[in-house]
Prior knowledge:
Blueprint: H1 30-50, E1 56-59, E2 69-73, E3 78-89, E4 93-99, E5 106-113, E6 115-121, E7 127-133, H2 134-147, H3 152-155, E8 161-163, H4 179-191, H5 203-213, H6 218-228, H7 230-239, E9 245-249, H8 255-262, E10 266-271, H9 274-286, E11 292-295, E12 308-314, H10 322-335, E13 336-344, H11 362-369, E14 374-382, H12 387-396, E15 406-413
Helix pairs in contact: 5-9, 6-8
Amino acid sequence: MNLITFDPKIEKIPDILSTKCMYVKFPLSDKVKFIIKELERNLDLLIFKYGNTRGIGLSANQIGENLSIAIVNFREEKIVLINPKLLNFSKSETLSRIGCLSFFKYRGMVRHPKEIKITFEDIEGNKHLRKFSGDEALVLLHEIDHISGISLVERSESGVFIPWDITYPIGSNVPFKNYGIIFNLKRYLYNHGICIDFNPQTDIQYYSQFFREKRDDLSLYISNSVKKRIEMINLIKKYTPLKGKILEAGCGTSSHSVYLSKEGYQVTAIDIENDMLGLAKKFNETLSGNVIYTLGDIFHLPFKSNTYNTIFSHGVLEHFSNQEIVSIINESLRVANTVIISVPTIFDISNNLMGDEILRSVFRWKSILRKTNGYLKETHGSFPFHPRLRRLKKLTGKILDFIAPVAIFVIVKE
Length: 414
């Protein structure tokens, strides 16, 4: 049993997805148990392919079985729902972007209640009454819609769909433009329900695709990643004694950690996303790295004070508010003498932004970092995607820093 897919812009909705699903009786037959296992198998494959950051679900009719069954997988919990029913919902609503695995190429805008109450049965026939909110409510409502024979095509406001492209080639050339400002403007319009050509994505989706399709090129990927961030790497080496202890906070694929571990440093990498951490471990194993991985929160690092010489992060802090950045830096300074961060600015012209970055100027970053418990010792601008600007930067020194697409900051304990 495989996933039923279609293109909503050129094809009609398949009949199986437009038909209300049949009630499931207990005890479950062997056939129904087999269908549930097939649902789980398909969902696991899709999670590996697309990632699972906010929640993902699959209903039985999406694999061709007209039964009232769905599975949802959230960050902390996977739930099998049999005969789910919406009981109650809040009056307050929100407009959210959502996708459907039956046509993952597109996203639709859906207005939905912020909180819901549903009933369902588990595989043992036990009845459950639960409340959900936020992203979890959105995912569950989508699966209940499937079971009711309602497609995202019908539910999406104005029937408009936004293309979703997760196959950007790493390091590809893009037109020179002030992408950061345009990006923020597009996101603002998008978040206010104006559907435009906007492609937000997530780390795990981006890199799962890359790992699956380009495993033979991973060593080249690490090499290119280090070359593009060589200023940050050199600063890490400058502030860390040989064989010293380094922590990467919010490691993602941990490409820089893998490199540093092979250079003789004792490297630990931490991330809050279990899916991403699993992918990072695969990178490390495939490339014979020596990184130690820990699941944890950068707001509350699970380490004693002064454990590390240096903590660094790349492409992490731009996802947080000003006050959150201050809190993260202060927590990092608790466990390390030096904190080095690399972040995109409003002049970022790459195509690797993931969808919820807050792009700030170099001056704005400096004003935020001066509110931390540390001392802002060094500031550098970097032009990783533009060799000509990079050469010009070497000639002009600090003159181009204020328009750099990437800013690197070194904060030390006072």
